[in-house]
Design a protein that fits this description.
homodimer; about 425 residues; alpha/beta; TIM Barrel; 8-stranded parallel sheet; 14 helices; 17 strands; about 40% helix; about 20% strand
Chain lengths: ~425, ~425
């Protein structure tokens, strides 16, 4: 199946490349040409040709940290602090969730990802086997991360999932991970360290999300969570952390040394009053920053435009400097760094050989006018109304406000309402 | 012209009224019935009947402080502090703007207001006569505010505009105002005070937006801007302030005593690193808080969903308390208080006799599912994609992503690109 997307403005996100007018050609799920029109291979016939009408193509947004299946709890228990919310509202309900529940609830999140131009998600949630099914059937690129902790599952299950769920389908993967320092005993962390050494695997985890959590680790171990994990060899093969709101400079030194990434979740951190992550400090240290929505119960929505604006707006407030973290830096976090923070390196730019995870931004909307600077327009003024098309793995799953016919939208809505009623 | 909006969930924003299933009837530009279906007058014929398909009707959002015509400068000069941005980038270009420029640039903003469910704007900008024409032709409810300062216009012009532009058309009004303390000599403020006493008129102004501005006034006069205006009798007939990021408790006492309102502009204040306004403190004092986008050059977009989320998210960060400023409070600011902060009292709720400024929220979008709490869904998860209809003064101006045929969208886009090129 070959495709041609022509009459477009193209923002490749390849370092040093400016936006230009041209076209993209695709064969199956890979990009075969990016450049001016007419292409060198003008005259070639394509199975499908899409006129982009002067709109912008860029690599899809990467939601590098989320808990998709938590759609069940949207608007259920807001305005609470993190520990009350988790212990009293979320954990008791999650205990009642079945793999099938997670399957449908994940699909609900995927619908929202499409409307927001998100083409891949880093998903730490229950029942990875049913998330695998949901992703493959839906067509969502999903890099799962183990959320192992002292309540489960076993190390054997983690190892089995790592072996079974990787390389089974090009859309889905499974990364080594633990939920957080505060939900794992030291012995468990040591066993995980052995496992990642066996597979030479990078590790991902929630870290230093709240001040309390960060300080309690220091009380417990005499060192920060970052330093503790380093001392246990958990960063020996890289990886990264989610949140990192309270990381100190010494933590950033470890991150730089180990090549770790940080995924910031600004809406969730604001809504739970966890704080503002030190984005400018990470960037100055040369640490790659990516962006995540976190789960739809703490955020509550899965809107990458809101996250992108928050990254820069909150940095400007935190640094008391309107020059902090400019628009192009934010776009790089959203399109490029987010892929890397999921250990994906084939969908971070529009270039020959890369995966065709592409979105189209509608410039014929009032919030995109006048057209003085397209990347600033996207980051400072963009909204989900500007997502004219979302393509994952070469397939158009969302276009002009409509989902692809292969997606059973009404069934997803109905199943999720039923599940939510049961869990309430 | 009579209309019936049926099969709806209705959030009237009348204090104490819960959301219910029902219908709204309209005659001309006024609401004639709000209640259960079938109405008491079942059997009446209507000129138009709109099936709301189970979606939500609520009063339109009120953008209580903006500079609509600044669309020309969107993405032109970002990442600068307020004074550099104003003095070096904005003022020199504004000096070249014609009334016709402002006419087209305002219409571009109005398009964006419609996509965001904004049914009225409080607009402080150049050339009120051409803004009047733009609003009336477009059908946008616009309450203009004088931006008088030491560079112009004269007091005579202000008085003439006050007399001529009020009560000329039900959609448009003109309020007394000055740009700010720091752009007005004391003698000018004294003359404005005489004028507002002549007309017993409330006054609106930018105030305490930046720390520098607030502190320089204290140096100059030995008192805060709020206290200075009070000492000059400028609050004798009420009114309000825009921004109020740095107001002190004593300022709030004056505001409470004088019945003043504050319009917060969270995106603009964040982007310019001006700070986070003390919303919780205003609410505790019993001061009505409204929301504005500020102009599209400092924000840069005119998206009320982004503003609503920022109001609550930034309050939670500022207070270090996830319970600060809940969703229903934010909706009240957006739909009700915003009207009052424009001195409008006929469009703040869905009730018999009120103006038909109504929006419809699309629940058949993934970000609105599941439906556990509609006001939380709107504030925490809502986006412009959920605006299914925007009605102003009884006329549907935007529906299902399309603007009304009476609106010349392409001409607005083209004129604004031309104007922007000339001003660049």
């Amino acid at each position: 199946m070959t495709k041609r997307l022509y009459n477009a403005k193209i923002l490749t996100m390849v370092p040093g490349e400016d936006i230009f007018d041209g076209e993209i050609q695709i064969d199956g799920n890979r990009i075969t040409y990016v450049g001016k029109s007419p292409a060198e291979n003008a005259g070639t016939k394509f199975d499908e040709e899409i006129d982009c009408e002067g709109n912008v193509l860029l690599p899809g947004f990467k939601n590098a940290h989320t808990h998709s299946g938590m759609t069940a709890f949207r608007s259920l228990a807001d305005d609470l602090n993190l520990q009350d919310w988790l212990n009293n509202e979320i954990f008791p309900r999650e205990a009642k969730m079945t793999p099938e529940d997670v399957y449908w609830l994940s699909k609900l999140a995927y619908l929202e990802y499409l409307t927001s131009g998100i083409t891949a998600c880093g998903d730490m949630y229950l029942t990875p086997e049913s998330i695998y099914d949901a992703s493959v059937e839906f067509g969502m690129r999903c890099q799962m991360v183990s959320g192992l902790n002292k309540f489960g599952p076993t190390l054997e299950v983690l190892e089995r999932r790592y072996n079974e769920l990787n390389n089974k389908n090009g859309l889905v993967g499974f990364l080594m991970g633990v939920h957080a320092e505060y939900t794992c005993e030291k012995e468990l962390l040591e066993s995980v360290s052995e496992l990642i050494h066996k597979y030479k695997a990078p590790l991902y985890t929630h870290m230093s999300e709240t001040k309390t959590e960060h300080e309690e680790c220091i009380k417990r171990y005499g060192m920060t969570p970052m330093a503790l994990f380093d001392s246990l060899g958990l960063w020996d093969f890289g990886g990264g952390i989610y949140h990192g709101v309270w990381c100190e400079e010494s933590d950033m030194d470890i991150m730089k040394k180990r090549g770790l990434r940080v995924v910031t979740n600004p809406a969730s951190n604001a809504k739970l009053a966890s704080g503002i992550a030190p984005i400018e400090a990470y960037l100055e240290k040369g640490i790659e920053v990516a962006i995540g929505t976190d789960g739809p119960s703490s955020n509550n929505c899965l809107d990458f435009f809101r996250e992108m604006f928050l990254v820069t707006a909150l940095a400007k407030i935190k640094e008391n400097d309107p020059k902090a973290v400019d628009a192009m830096e934010v776009l790089k976090m959203a399109c490029v760094n987010g892929a890397h923070a999921m250990e994906l390196f084939d969908n971070d730019a529009l270039a020959v050989g890369k995966l065709a995870d592409i979105i189209m931004i509608d410039l014929y909307q009032p919030n995109m006018r006048p057209i003085l600077n397209i990347s600033k327009n996207i980051v400072y003024s963009g909204s989900k109304t500007n997502i004219k098309m979302t393509m994952i793995d070469g397939k158009v799953l969302y276009k002009n406000g409509q989902f692809n016919d292969t997606i059973e939208v009404d069934e997803i809505y109905n199943k999720c309402e039923e599940i939510t009623k049961r869990l309430r």
